[in-house]
Amino acid sequence: MKPTEDFGEPRNMATSKTNIFYNPTFRSVVFQILAVAGLAFFFYTIVNNALSNLEARGIATGFDFLSQEAGFGIGLTLIEYDETYSYGRTFIVGLLNTALVSFFGIILATIVGFIMGIARLSTNWLVSRFAAVYIEIFRNVPLLLQIFFWYFAVLQALPSARQSLSLGEAIFLNVRGLYFPAPIFETGASIVIGSFVVGIIVTILVSVWAKNKQQLTGQQTPMGKITLLFCVVIPVVCYFVMGSPISAEMPELRGFNFEGGISIIPELAALLIALSIYTASFIAEIVRSGINAVSHGQTEAAMSLGLPRSRTLKLVVIPQALRIIIPPLTSQYLNLTKNSSLAMAIGYPDLVSVFAGTTLNQTGQAIEIIAMTMGVYLTLSLLTSALMNIYNRKVALVER
Length: 400
Description:
It is found in: Cell inner membrane; Cell membrane. Its main location: membrane. By secondary structure, the chain is α+β, with helices and mostly antiparallel strands. Among the domains are: 21-52; 87-155 and 265-395, MetI-like (MetI-like fold, Orthogonal Bundle). The chain is 65% helix and 7% strand. It is built from twelve helices and eight strands. It has a four-stranded antiparallel sheet. Strands 4-5 form a two-stranded antiparallel sheet. Strands 6-7 form a two-stranded antiparallel ribbon. Helix 3 (87-119) packs antiparallel against helix 11 (351-363), helix 6 runs antiparallel to helix 7 and helix 9 runs antiparallel to helix 10 (309-339). The longest helix has 33 residues, at 24-56. The radius of gyration is 30 Å and the shape is globular.
């Protein structure tokens, strides 16, 4: 028998050099570089063609238009504004109006969503059915139609200013909006406000201390009385000691409309109600599924210790359910912020309506304006995600 040939001889150098192209790591890096380069060339071509077309039409590019006079009014402004201000000012006004409806929409949607989610699991048949009907109706009707409903069918059907619905002589509701007293701050008001802020800070610190004390000793601290003392009693005492430095400016009917006080325009009210109710229907299902994901044994163990249902839900079930609720809840917050752009349909002066609408039509700076508008929504979404991720890490289960 012939001896077995040796197949372990080293391969030639040319063959070993070509093996690098079959290396998965090397190929993945090369393909990613080629993909990024192709994408960059694609966007460069688009932008270059767009700039060339604008230049051929005589439309200037750049952000110099932001310093030009706007020449149009805005119905709702959180900062000082009139027709003589620049387009840059309109951008800020629209941004603040978008942030306003998004912030309060998130708060209201969270409150209503948690209430309906818990009600959906109620042992009371009527409460449970009511929550189920609410969820199925508002979750399956398009948001734009809901905005139209609240604006045209509800708010536009209110009486005129002279026949306003009133609560006492301070709050008035009519087709032009909701009017209520505005605070007037005089000398010494800063002390009253400062005492209230300090009271909130002290209450939070005491609450943290009381929680640690309860975990170590089992003793509970009467936080209700402490909160009443620092957040109500002390600020009220400061208010009278300083000579009542905070008063109210009442809205008054002059001609065909009210003047003075604070007003909420119907466009803001309709958009806020529709966004909150629509998003809350999704949040309610998220809350329900999060609570159902908590083992029923946790509830039975808490109730066997004598805890009532309300405290069992607050102290045992909800803290564990939050670990499941927070991630999808973040997505709903992002959806609410982006859906606020539908405000343009009813004339609410948000960023899309004021800046990407009127300003774009007057200046023709499409690329700059759309890029700035997209950047705002991207920034708001990333900021919301960052804050929710911080909270998510705080409530997450820490493994030992």
